[in-house]
Amino acid sequence: MTLSLLTALLPIALLIVLGAWLKRRQFLADDFWAQAERLAYYVLLPSLFFHGLATAKLDGVPYQSMVSVLVVSTVVVSLMLLSARKLITQDNAAFTSVFQGGIRFNNYVGVSAAAGLFGVHGIALAAVANAAIVPTVNILCVLVFAKYGSGGRMPFSKVLKQLALNPLLLACFAGGLMRVLGWGLPAGIEPMLRALGQASLPLGLLCVGAALEFGSIKQWLCPVGYSSMVKFLIMPIVTLLACHLFELEGKAAVAALLFQTLPTASSSYIMARQLGGDAPLMAGIIACQTLLAGVALPAVVLALSRWV
C-alpha cells in the first residue's frame, strides 16, 4: 500500500517543482500563467469531472453506503471548519484557502492509489468517491467563497447565480445526469473529453508551482498546519466514524478513508484565483500537503483501515 501511494504522489510533487522552476527561469511569459489558469477552470477541469462521472462504472460497489459516508463526513468537517473560523484566521481570503485545504482532494492520487491497491475494483470505488465528493466539495467551496472571498459577501441571489453558472458544478451535474440516465458518450466525443480532462492535471500542477512565493513561507506555517491537521487527522477520523454509522466495511471503507485523506487538489488553486481567495497561500498549502502526504497518507490509511 505504501509504495502505491508514494508512486501516485511523486509525479505531482515533480510537476509542482517544474512549474516553480519554469516561472523562476521566466521560460514562459508571465501572461501565460493567468491564461492557463482560465483554460483549466473553464475547459479542462469541467471536462475531467464530466467525463469521470458520465463514464463511472459502479458494478459490485456498495455505492449508497459509500456515498452517504463521504458526503456526511465532508459536510461535518466543513461545519467544524466554519465554526472554528475565528480561531483559524481573521483573514477571510486566507480562510477560504484553509477550508479548501481541509476538504478538497486530489483525484489523480486517489484514482492511481485505488487502482494500485484494488485493481479494476479500485477504479470502480474511485468513481463512486468522485461522484460523491466532487459535487459536494464544489458546492461547499462556492458557498464559502460567496461569503468570505475577497470580493465581499454576496447577496443570496448572486450566490445562487454563482452556483448555477459555476463550470465545475455544471460539469458534475451534467456528468452525473448522463450516468443516471445511462446515456453513453458518443464515440468521437468521449476520447476528446478524456484527453481534455487528463490535460487539466499537469497544467494545474504547473500553475501551482508557478504561484509559489517562497518569501512568504513563514506566513504559511499556521494555515498549512490547520489545513493539514484537518485533512490528515480530523477528516479521516470523522470518515471512520461515518463508516461505522452507515455500516460500510471492507475495500469500500478503505477506499473512503483513502479519498478523505488525500492531499488537496490543484483545482483548489484555480478556484482561489478565479473566485477571490488567497491564491499564493493556496499554492503553498497544496505544495506542503503533497509533501506531507508521502508520510501522512500511508500512515493514516494503514492505522485506521484495521478498524473498518
Structural write-up:
The protein has 308 residues and is mainly alpha-helical. The chain has one domain (2-29, 59-156, 201-305). 81% of the residues lie in helices and 0% in strands. α2 packs across α13. The relative contact order is 0.20.
Helix fraction, binned, reads over 70%
Unreliable spans are: none
Overall mean pLDDT stands at: 86
- Domain unit count: 1
User: Rg from C-alpha positions?
Assistant: 18 Å
Anisotropy-based shape = globular
- Following the backbone from N to C, one meets helices and strands in this order, namely HHHHHHHHHHHHHH
Proportion in β-strands: under 5%
**Number of extended strands:** 0
Distance between the termini: 16 Å
Q: Which structural category do the helix and sheet elements fall into?
A: mainly alpha
Number of helices: 14
Major sheet summary line = none
Subcellular location: Cell membrane
Family: Belongs to the auxin efflux carrier (TC 2.A.69) family.
Main location: membrane
Keywords: Cell membrane, Membrane, Transmembrane, Transmembrane helix, Transport
Key features of this structure:
308 residues; mainly alpha; 14 helices; 81% helix; globular
Topology summary:
Elements: H1 2-24, H2 30-54, H3 63-83, H4 85-88, H5 92-103, H6 107-118, H7 120-148, H8 156-165, H9 167-181, H10 189-211, H11 217-245, H12 250-260, H13 267-275, H14 279-305
Summarize the entry for a quick read.
By secondary structure, this protein is mainly alpha-helical. It has helices at 2-24, 30-54, 63-83, 85-88, 92-103, 107-118, 120-148, 156-165, 167-181, 189-211, 217-245, 250-260, 267-275, 279-305.
